[in-house]
Amino acid sequence: MRTVVVSTIVSLDGFVAGPGGDISRLPMDGSFDALNLERLRAAGTLLLGATTYRGMVAYWPAVAEDPTVSPAVQLDPSVAELHRETARRNAELPKVVVSDSLTPADTGPWAQTTTIVRRAEAHAAVAALQEEAGGDVLVFGSRTLWGDLLPAGLVDELFLLVGPALLGAGLRAFPDGVPAHLRLRDTSRRPGSDSVLLHYTVDRARPS
């Protein structure tokens, strides 16, 4: 059995993006980068929505070639190898993208490691991934996707990096009416960061 893990950054007032999908005001500091790499090291498959996938395939291949193109590396050259490893793992891992709009032409340099699943088939595809052996099935971002999988009982764990930003409006982390009971497993905070990592498991033993 594999674990479906959601990893995302969220503002203190509960948004994963601002109006129009703007994520620029979320505090993506070193804690965010380190969390992403930690989760990638434990993953066997990336499970993504189309918007997140398009953003990643447009960004990470260039970083794999030259980490200095990353704004984070330009600000702090010491994180260059962290970003290089992140880019390499993003490229190498098998990727399952749930989308009715994405086509093979959109997969670019990740064509050989990307499988597109239509939304009507998503629940069955994720359930099948859970039954396999291997590393975690990792969901980065992709709130529309995991907001659908969570009430369907297809999410096992959530890593929520709560950052010190108030967006006021935008895309809420949890859609209205999503039924789930979460059990806190751990909290942590990296030295020098004002973000706090909350690690939850989904408790299916209790009624929602």
From TrEMBL:
Residue ranges annotated for the Bacterial bifunctional deaminase-reductase C-terminal domain, each copy included: 2-191
GO molecular-function term, one example from the UniProt record: 5-amino-6-(5-phosphoribosylamino)uracil reductase activity
Pfam families: RibD_C
Origin superkingdom: Bacteria
GO biological process: riboflavin biosynthetic process
Regions crossing the membrane: none
PANTHER family linked to this entry: 2,5-DIAMINO-6-RIBOSYLAMINO-4(3H)-PYRIMIDINONE 5'-PHOSPHATE REDUCTASE (PTHR38011:SF11), DIHYDROFOLATE REDUCTASE FAMILY PROTEIN (AFU_ORTHOLOGUE AFUA_8G06820) (PTHR38011)
Record's protein name: Bifunctional deaminase-reductase domain protein
Organism expressing this protein natively: Geodermatophilus obscurus (strain ATCC 25078 / DSM 43160 / JCM 3152 / CCUG 61914 / KCC A-0152 / KCTC 9177 / NBRC 13315 / NRRL B-3577 / G-20)
